[in-house]
Amino acid sequence: MGKDNEEISIDAEVETPETEKPTETNETEVDELTQMKELVAQWEDKYLRTHADFENSKRLLAKDKLTAVSYANESFANDILSVVDSFDSALAMIASTDSEDGSDVLDKIKEGLELTHTQLLKVLEKNGIKVVECEGEFDPDVHQVIMQMDSDDKKTGEIVQVLQKGYTIKERLLRPAMVSTAK
Q1: Averaged pLDDT of the chain
Q2: Which CATH architecture has domain 129-183?
Q3: Nearest-angstrom CA–CA distance, 88 and 91
Q4: Which phi and psi (to 5°) does residue 155 adopt?
Q5: Model pLDDT, residue 105
Q6: What is the rounded end-to-end Cα distance, in angstroms, of the chain?
Q7: Whether 109 contacts 90, CB under 8 Å
């Protein structure tokens, strides 16, 4: 029986240190694993935020590019050159005529200027530039009141007179129309 007790005590001494060491190692490994998981989560969050910022920037740049292209077209410059040519022809015609021709010359000048004006309006409209409507009620988004007048046939706030035309390009206001309104 004495031998049996010695074997048990030896086994007990050997087993006790073996169970304590793996527990300490496991706790250290678990702590390290937890720290690594937290670190991975932080980096993943940073990555997702950076990627979202990048995608937002990319979308804004595409939008800005589309806006720039639609509002600054090169063909406008080419189309306006034909209008400049028409004005040059009209001025050359005025310079080459004698002042004695009188009314006939003035009629030709008037006709030339009217044709040039019509051509200019067509070129502007072709490029998305339109005259602001000035009929009826005052609209602060597209009109600028310069003065107010008494008017028998217009209601208060209605446009009485257009002092300078306003223009829009596509949906953007280039210049407000300067108007006078009824008191």
Answers
A1: 80
A2: Roll (2.30)
A3: 5
A4: -80, 165
A5: 73
A6: 125
A7: yes
